[in-house]
Structure to design on (135 residues):
């Protein structure tokens, strides 16, 4: 009788684990990210790291959610050909294009534009990354 009980418990645990691991009917996007009902999208913080993975910002960035800009001042002489931009976004948002890691942001005359996409994937806000050297 105890063998049947152990077999039953094993079957029950396995069933619960299998059911818990399935995605069910949850919608996901092409990146495998969950699509939610959130329409908000914004950049909430920004960091810029050098090739040594230390910050190259000389002060905190200025994020303007109305003008959709991120203004960052970097130390004089910073090599912007090999930097790692890091964006923090509102909940459930994603960034396009994806930041592959190291980027070349040295063309200060043509600021890079990143688009923040809302959790429901219906709202898209382009943010311009404006970089200036410390005087």
């Amino acid at each position: 009788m105890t063998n049947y009980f152990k077999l039953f418990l094993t079957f029950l645990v396995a069933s619960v684990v299998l059911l818990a691991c399935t995605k069910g009917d949850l919608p996901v996007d092409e990146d495998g990210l969950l699509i939610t009902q959130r329409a908000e999208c914004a950049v909430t913080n920004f960091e810029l790291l050098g090739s040594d993975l230390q910050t190259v910002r000389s002060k905190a960035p200025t994020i303007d959610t109305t003008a959709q800009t991120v203004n960052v001042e970097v130390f004089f002489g910073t090599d912007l050909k090999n930097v790692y931009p890091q964006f923090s976004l509102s909940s459930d948002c994603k960034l396009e294009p994806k930041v592959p890691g190291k980027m070349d942001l040295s063309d200060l005359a043509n600021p890079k534009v990143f688009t923040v996409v809302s959790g429901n994937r219906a709202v898209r806000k382009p943010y311009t990354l404006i970089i200036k050297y410390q005087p």
